[in-house]
Amino acid sequence: MTWVNAVVQGVLLGGLFALFATGLSLAFGVMRFVNLAHGDLAVLAAFLAVSTTATLDVDPFVSLLVIVPGFALGGYVLQRFVFNRTMGADPLPSILVTFGLGVVIQNALLEHYSADSRGLDAGAIETRSATLTDDISIGWFPLLTLVVAVAVLVALQLVLSRTRAGRAFRATADDPSIARLMGIDDRAVYGRIMAIAFATVALAGVFLGIRQTFGPSDGPTALIFGFEAVVIGGLGSLWGTLVGGVVLGVAQTVGNQVDVRYDLLSGTLFGHLIFLTVLAFRPQGLLGRKGRA
Amino acid sequence: MSAVLEIRGLAAGYGDFQALFDIDLTVDDGETLAVIGANGAGKSTLLGTMAGLVRATAGSVRFAGEDLLAVPHHGRVALGIALVPEGRHLFPSLTVEENLLVGGHSRRPGRWDVDRVLEVFPLVRPLLSRPADVLSGGERQAVAIGRALMANPRLLLLDEVSLGLAPVVVKQLYAALPAVIGEGTTVLLVEQDIGQALAVADRVVCLLEGRISLEGVPAGLDRARITGAYFGAGT
């Protein structure tokens, strides 16, 4: 039964991965933009939540009311005034700029918060759980994370498929210059997409900070997990990102279960192996369409 | 008739390559003007410069009294300029209906809507929920024209409507054209098929290597003059 528990915990962990990877998936799906600072942005959000909770004496969940809109605004401004200038046929400028942004964030955090690990205290919900059987219990907070991830992805999918703005997003993703002929300002679309991406990564960062301790240099590791979730699920597909997050989460928790006997095969390594397997045999991802990735 | 489009000294190109030189052209309200010329003569560039696909490098364009070149590319359609681009360029991951709706993203008030497009192009009706990338060439062209009409354009730019289509399909598309043109819309039509172009146009201009080589009404042009302007022979 411990194996079943490992799978259940993996699905819940996958919720966090999916929530974190949503912004990566969206930015890549609509504008082929790879944001290497995505992990550092999540960590930045977690640290800002530390400061907000301390200064305003509020719950980390309440701090989201400040941090998420702040991040959305920051994402919009960065896209309009910095990232848009790096976009073009050559992907290198955007990669360099976001890599640089990541370095700046890491060092600013180190400077301001020191290298100590921090945590966010969300109170009783962190330790409460529902016991299903003797072996399986579901933590309320991991469950909340998964529910929030699914809700965010469903909401985004509905916006993309049902609304006028979502239609404009998809048209721009298909062909920005033809979208311009339809009166769609592609630069503004990119700004809005990045605002959504930043808002979701802020959400994920604060949830990450409640779940586990974090330090200024944790961003790149988170970025790798996020990319693995996106690639496993299929580049540019939001449902794929959810599936990818869950697959990666399960791979890691099941891998940790194996680790009891084999020192080498840790959960992280097991996750990487699943990622490589998908890349080797189904490079378009589990839900990806051939030819688009 | 009053001029709706006044082009003066227009130059445009792509990077180091200049495709249009010193174009002067006036188009009257409600007129259908055919732009003919060989491959690479600058016809598509001319339309693209109006619609906002190509940046002008010199000259001025006044559209309905506005300085068109000062309007950002994505703002052109709201002024009433819609382009049916060469190669159709539908949005492949959107359905046919969504393609039409995107065409109306910045629509001006007017009479075109999805129902009316379907009246003019009945072949599109059964395709509405299909993804645009599974359509045939003729179906794509009909949707592309419908998508442009959804904006309620005052000036409709049609680029190579017949290119790559079977003659019977071209005939169907052109049969629908009077329903479009007959209602006061000004049309700039780029067409390789000169016979087809002359049949529908009020006036013709021929481009040769980025310059206007001939301008006139179809009835007043004989074959030799058109051929000369088209290929540059005898000039």
Topology:
The complex is a heterodimer of chains A (293) and B (235).
Chain A: H1 2-31, H2 38-56, H3 60-86, H4 92-113, E1 129-131, E2 137-139, H5 140-162, H6 164-174, H7 176-181, H8 186-211, H9 219-233, H10 238-258, H11 267-281
Antiparallel strand pairs in A: 1-2
Chain B: E1 3-14, E2 17-28, E3 32-37, H1 43-51, E4 56-63, E5 66-67, H2 76-79, E6 81-84, H3 96-103, H4 114-120, H5 137-149, E7 155-159, H6 167-181, E8 186-190, H7 194-200, E9 203-208, E10 211-216, H8 223-231
Parallel strand pairs in B: 3-8, 3-9, 6-7, 7-8
Antiparallel strand pairs in B: 1-2, 1-4, 4-5, 9-10
Helix pairs in contact in B: 3-5, 5-6
Task: Describe this protein's structure.
The complex is a heterodimer of chains A (293) and B (235). Chain A is mainly alpha-helical. Chain A has a domain at 20-218. Chain A has helices at residues 2-31, 38-56, 60-86, 92-113, 140-162, 164-174, 176-181, 186-211, 219-233, 238-258, 267-281; strands spanning 129-131, 137-139. A two-stranded antiparallel sheet of chain A has the order 1-2. In chain A, strand 1 and strand 2 (137-139) form a beta hairpin. In chain A, helix 2 (38-56) runs antiparallel to helix 3 (60-86). Chain A is globular and about 60 Å long. Chain A starts with a helix and ends in a 12-residue tail after the last helix. The model of chain A has no long low-confidence stretch (mean pLDDT 91). Chain B is α/β, with parallel strands linked by helices and 235 residues long. Chain B has a single domain, classed as P-loop containing nucleotide triphosphate hydrolases (Rossmann fold), CATH 3.40.50.300. Chain B contains eight helices and ten strands. Chain B has helices at residues 43-51, 76-79, 96-103, 114-120, 137-149, 167-181, 194-200, 223-231, and strands spanning 3-14, 17-28, 32-37, 56-63, 66-67, 81-84, 155-159, 186-190, 203-208, 211-216. A six-stranded mixed β-sheet of chain B has the order 6-7-8-3-9-10, sandwiched between helices. Chain B has a four-stranded antiparallel β-sheet with strand order 2-1-4-5, covered by helices on one side. In chain B, strand 7, helix 6 (167-181) and strand 8 (186-190) form a beta-alpha-beta unit. In chain B, 47% of the residues are buried. Classes of the chains: A mainly alpha (293), B alpha/beta (235). The A-B interface holds A 164, 167-168, 170-171, 173-175, 177-186 and B 51-53, 72-78, 82-83, 85, 89, 91-94, 98, 101-103, 105-106, 147, 151.
